Amino acid sequence: MDEDLVLALRLHEEWNLEVAEHGLVQEPLSLVDASWELVDPTPNLQALFMQFNDQYFWGQLEAVEVKWSLRMTMCAGVCSYEGKGGMCSIRLSEPLLKLRPRKDLVEVYHNFHDEVEEYRRHWWRCDGPCQFKKPYYGYVKRSTNRAPSAHDYWWATHQKTCGGTYVKVKEPENYSKKGKEKTKPRKQPAAAAAATAAAAKKKGNP
């Protein structure tokens, strides 16, 4: 056997023994390892996706767009695909994920039922027969102030089978008050009001 090869094999064996004794080589951290919460608690979404693309998908997802969605509250994320040769876009819910533990962003599966329910703060309830039927008991819960109407795919069926009227029964605290404040006309400053009155009086005199 070649002397150089023998030396290389011996050095390699010695290195393996030294590693085993001193633990110089460590297993890579799991994606959901608890230490990530201290090392990188809020990773950059795009950088994280590029890392996963290289590590798990052999760089095949370079054309995929990944971004946060501010309005998505019914699910943690969606993937939109336009077909062969088309664009692929992944949108993740910022309200549900941005302030969650890091593992919730990277793990394969997580149940977000509680988080979704937290954002559904506008409630309506039907006053018809469906209020006594499972599983919803006449309730419609939404994250936005959009009352049930003909724009809902199930509206026609509801009209035929129940025919009741939806009445709003719950909304975020002070929500109605905030809406009234936005539409309330601004009060005219005292000085400006006095000047306007004086100008009107002067205009009325010959």
Beta-strand content estimate: 5-15%
Cα-to-Cα separation, first versus last residue: 123 Å
| Order of strands across the main sheet | 1-3-2
> Which spans have pLDDT < 50 for at least 5 consecutive residues?
none
* C-alpha Rg (nearest Å): 31 Å
Sketch the topology as an H/E string, one letter per element: HHHEEEHHHEEHEHH
β-strand number: 6
Please describe the biggest sheet, giving its number of strands, its sense, and whether it closes into a barrel.
Answer: 3 strands, mixed
Task: Describe the protein's architecture and organization.
It is found in: Nucleus. One of its GO terms (cellular component) is nucleus. InterPro entries: Spartan (IPR044245), SprT-like_domain (IPR006640), SPRTN_ZBD (IPR055220). By secondary structure, this protein is α+β, with helices and mostly antiparallel strands. Among the domains are: 75 residues, no CATH class; 51 residues, no CATH class. Helix content is 40%, strand content 15%. It is built from nine helices and six strands, in the order H-H-H-E-E-E-H-H-H-E-E-H-E-H-H. The strands form two sheets. Strands 1-3-2 form a three-stranded mixed sheet. A hairpin with a 6-residue loop joins strand 2 and strand 3. The radius of gyration is 31 Å and the shape is elongated. The protein starts with a helix and ends with a helix.
Annotation keywords:
206 residues, alpha+beta, 3-stranded mixed sheet, 3-stranded antiparallel sheet, 6 strands, elongated
